[in-house]
Every structure is written in C-alpha cells, then in structure tokens.
Amino acid sequence: MSDSSSNDTLFFLIGLPGLEALHVWLSIPLCALYLVSLAGNSLIIWVVRSEPTLHQPMYYFLSILAVTDLGLSAYTMPTMLTIYMLGLRQVAVDVCLAQLFFIHTFSIMESSVLLTMAFDCFVAIRSPLHYGTILTNTRIASLGLAMVVRSIGLHIPAPIMLKKPPYCQNRLLSHSYCLHPDVMKLACANTHINSAYGLFVVISTLGMDSVLIVLSYGLILQTVLYIASKAERMKALNTCVSHICAVLLFYIPPIAMSMIHRFGKTTSPSSPVLLSYLHYLTPPVLNPVVYTIKTKEIRLRMLRLFCPGRSGIRDIHGH
C-alpha cells in the first residue's frame, strides 16, 4: 500500500494490549470514572459560584482547575469509550488532530493552574495580611486569561504542522486517544521540526512549571520554618496539602512514562498505556474528592446541600 496524504488518512487507536476480550467490561469502570469526574467538578464549580464565602482567590483557582479537568475528560473519554464499548478503533485525521490539540491544551492549562495555585499558597502563608490586596479579582482574571492564551497559543501550530506530511501504511497509534508525539511518529517525512517544536513546548510548560512549583514550595517551607508555634506551622502546611496531592497526581505519571521510555525496554506493552490513563483520567476524578475532603469550607457547603440537618450541627461546633 502506498503512502497517503493526511487528508484521507484514518488512524487506528488501541485499548489495553492483551486485554481485548475484556474491553466491554472495562468500559463500565471507564464510564463510572467519567460520570464521577463530571459530577465532582461540576459540583465544585457550582458550590464556589453559589457560596459567597467562597468568593476568594484560592476557590476561584479551584474553579478554574475544575473547568480544566472537565475539558480534559471531555476530550479523552469519547474515543476511549468507543474503543472499549463499541470496538471502533479508527479515527479520521481531522478528528484526531482536533483531539490532540484540545488534550494538550487542557493538559498545559492544568499545569498552569497548579503553578498559579502554588503561588496562591505562597502568598497566603508569606503575606496573609496582604493576601486580598495582592490577589485582587482583576489580577486573578488576568492570570486566568494568561493561562488560556498560553495554552492555546502554544498548541495552535501542532495540528497545522501535522496536517501537512503524508502518513505511512502503519497508522496504528499507541494510545486510546491522539497525542502529538504518537501521531508525529507515523509521518513518512522529516519530523525534526515537529520534534523540536514538541520538545520546546514540553520544556517551556510542564518542565518550567514543575521547577517553579518546587521553588514555590521551597519558599513556603522557608517561610513556615520561621513560624514560632508548631501548631501554626502545621496549620500553614495543611493549607497546601490538597494542592500537593493534585500536583503529585498530575506530574508523577508522565515522569514515570518518561523513565519507562528511556530505561524500561522489557516492560509490558500495557505499562505506558496505563500510565497515560493515570495522567489524563485520575486528576479529573480525584481532584474534586481531595479538595472536598481537605477543604473545610467546601465540605460544609456539601453537607448543607446533601444533609441539611447535620450541617447545622457541624457549623455550631466548627467541624
């Protein structure tokens, strides 16, 4: 079969290698994860919007994180569910390029939100008396706009560059959704520019963001160590626990994937796929759970919604 232009190419996605017979059954937990993500993040957005006491910077950033998680779920799940539920693996090139654009855009947006939330934690601990004057509504809106512009602007070239080259006979991708490096490998043309562009995006976003988050926590720890009271130190650190969990959920899987690609030559073919699922599926599901458990104000608002009688008792006792 001869090479084909990208305009009439179909790509083929995969599920979990070796578990094709179980794909229909695996679609059940996938549907459950999607519904939990949809419900949890929508509830976070609704709670923050409807509760005046939560109209504060950290909760605005949490709402942006929830919107980002909804977007990430919305663009990863459709092709996954068609593979596992219906056994349909082919995807048109235009649909594939649109999917990879939105997946990478929302992924970088999530990284940007996590970095901004690290800055929020630092300001709250370092300058609590000036917190409201530093993170004003105008500044929060500007940060939100910067995150969107940065994420979209960096990824507009991706589908344009991948639309041009011809694709070879082997059009089998290695994930259940389209990703830039995966599609790039199938091109029957020189991909050095594509590769350099992808590396630049990763270093200037995920790489830079992760370094800045680590530096932020270094400054937070330095500030906390100057607090005389042990109880106050623990209280200050406790405000960042939810954010630390969110950061670990988001960054550990891609780090592990990178290690496997470089050193894990004998690992199972399912390992990169599972790690990719952890990276794209678990943050949208677990972030709302973590923030609900660890954030008293959100927890109380949830209790008022679902258990009106019990929430009044808890408000009185301050638990």
TrEMBL record:
Chain segments annotated as transmembrane: 22-47, 59-77, 140-162, 210-228, 240-261, 273-293
Keywords: G-protein coupled receptor, Membrane, Olfaction, Receptor, Sensory transduction, Transducer, Transmembrane, Transmembrane helix
GO biological process annotation, one example: cellular response to lipid
InterPro entries: GPCR_Rhodpsn, GPCR_Rhodpsn_7TM, Olfact_rcpt, OR51/52/56-like
GO cellular component terms listed in the entry, alphabetical order: plasma membrane
Domain G-protein coupled receptors family 1 profile: from-to ranges: 40-291
Membrane topology, record value: Multi-pass membrane protein
Protein name listed in UniProt: G-protein coupled receptors family 1 profile domain-containing protein
Species: Loxodonta africana (African elephant)
Lineage: Eukaryota, Metazoa, Chordata, Craniata, Vertebrata
